[in-house]
Amino acid sequence: xxxxxxxxxxxxxxxxxxxxxxxxxxxxxxxxxxxxxxxxxxxxxxxxxxxxxxxxxxxxxxxxxxxxxxxxxxxxxxxxxxxxx
Length: 85
Fold this sequence. Notes:
Number of domains: 1
Distance between the termini: 14 Å
Helix content: 40-55%
Radius of gyration: 12 Å
CATH class: Mainly Alpha
Shape: globular
Largest sheet: 2 strands, antiparallel
Number of helices: 4
Low-confidence stretches: 1-16
Number of strands: 2
Structural class: mainly alpha
Strand content: 5-15%
């Protein structure tokens, strides 16, 4: 599913979404039933939750928010925007 979304929706306007780091983040968010924090994304990816890693992940999440792929309805809580077809 993620590869189909990345290939058909995101790569036309924004080639950076095919980056494996962004795909991994989207995969984690896609399986979450509730919003998730940057630290929890790090833990789910097996990355040590050091401040530099958490902040790097948060920056990627914020970029996804700016591209309207992810939403941040509460400060620090991120969820995937499910597109209606």
